[in-house]
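Consortium newsletter contribution from the modelling node. Members have asked for a concrete example of what our holo predictions look like. Here is one, prepared for the calcium ion complex that several groups have been discussing at recent meetings.
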Amino acid sequence: MDILVIEDDLLDFEILKRAFSKSSMQFRLVKASTSEEAFTLFKKDAFDIILLDFYLPDQTGLEFITTFKHEFGEDEVAIVVLSHEANPDVAIQCVEAGAEDYLTKTEITPARLKQAIYHSQARLKLRKQLIDSFSQVKYLAERDSLTGLANRRHFEQTLRDELSLNGHAHTHLAVAIVDLDHFKHINDSHGHDVGDQLLIQVAMHISKLISDNLLIARIGGDEFGILLKCNEHQQSIDLELKSLLNDINRVKVNGIEFITSVSIGVAVVPFGNAKSEDVLKCADIAMFKAKNSGRNRLCYFEDEMQAYFDKRYAIEIALHSALDNNEFDIYFQPVFNVKKDVVGVEALIRWIKEGEFIPPDEFIPIAEESTIINDIGYWVLHAAMDKFKQLINETNNDELVLSINISPVQLTDQQLAGHIVQELIKHDLRPKHIELEITETALMVNTEESLDTLEQLSDIGFSIALDDFGTGFSSISHLIDFPINTVKIDKSIMLSSQSERQNKLIHGLAFMIHSLDMDIVAEGVDNPETVSLCDLLNIERLQGFYLSKPQPLSVLKQTFFS
Ligand code: C2E
Ligand code: CA
Ligand code: CA
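And here is the predicted structure:
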């Protein structure tokens, strides 16, 4: 056994030597008088154990242990501290600093020495195993098992650590979120194995292209995070990140080339005070912006985005309690024939949140992203029929028609038709009283559920109107293939009816729709000329600010039925 004894007292060394020679151990003793000498010897030679005098000329034993472990590692060699001092606190401090054992010099006997050495070596072995399994667990806990990159937890931790550091030469930290476009589609159509291989390939491309990074991680199913040092001006990282856009356009899996793309969102923040969650949120917002602007691009976070998303988020939260707080109301916009008689009303939802009017165009799309639209839709059906029943009772006009807007999401609800019928019975109304307005998007999603609902509704006898025709897709085959009774020509077309071209378009549309035996509602009628045009084209119904804005029921009754 090779033993390094660090001891400046010659007498103490002699006592030790004698104890060894009386023990049954095979040993080689090498002596160092100072810690500096011990370091030099240790670097040159291999030792099984160090016996360390607590008081050295240049350091205390505690200091030696700390600097030694720092330089050579935790589990390099066992250290036994020897001291004249029988203070248990000092002994505990030494063990806590990393010594395996502590002996007072008066207790040194051959047997005690042998025992201390063997125990220390056994302890060191145990410690080694612990350190090994700890680093293995740490590795596993920080890694993504599929790609071998860091995982989200490690990414967030590193981001927190980096943000609190000072970047030295670089003043800023860039956080990029790289999201694969349409990955779900590849997964669904080619299977998860191919999906997994694709993710591995993408991980490799990112690691290869962004070599000068602080960390690359897989932070979600098809989402990667990159931490980069940079300066305030984005140019320093812009080229590198943009190279990803080109490189990931074609990725090969099992010899098959996939046309892929990524959307990248980047937030650049100064080192120092920023909070990691905020920075991640900003990069996320920029990534969504990249997706919304058509994917396959890189977007940097800007302040206006924050304002937009904050507002959206506030609406989303407020929507949850709007129904319970009775914040919704129904207005009716009257629908006229060309003789300007009211023939029906369109129910339009109104939301006043703490005194502020929020237009439906702002909150309906947000409600449609969750199931809230179904609850709102049910509320509208009930509230609109309630008011409409009052209207026909009080006006004695059973020929009026109530138009209700149905969102594409509601059409996928298989309870919808049954629910509408229940409301109808509850309000003693008949199918001829109701027209349901759907948009072309509902037809394009074309799920079996929505088609099914649409057919059920049509079979019951409700009139189905296709809303906003002339914007977006405007497909004639939609008019032919689905049970549509009425087409509403969008206000954007009617509002510009003054122009020659637009006028021709309206002529053509009216002719086409009439030849398919469908009724027309012209929306956005906002001047007398448009009324004349509708008359000329035999357009059945008219709606628009020139004739009437949407009104509360009481105002409507006063204006048109008193
Ligand atoms: P929409 O179904 O096309 O409704 C007509 C919209 O055009 C209404 O806006 C109405 O105020 C407006 N409008 C009517 N005449 C004119 C005009 O002459 N000029 C102009 N510039 N605008 C006119 P509103 O009430 O803000 O509703 C916007 C959209 O919100 C609706 O468009 C509809 O898509 C949706 N929406 C409203 N209420 C509901 C509802 O209860 N359920 C669902 N799912 N969507 C609704
Ligand atoms: Ca409508
Ligand atoms: Ca419309």
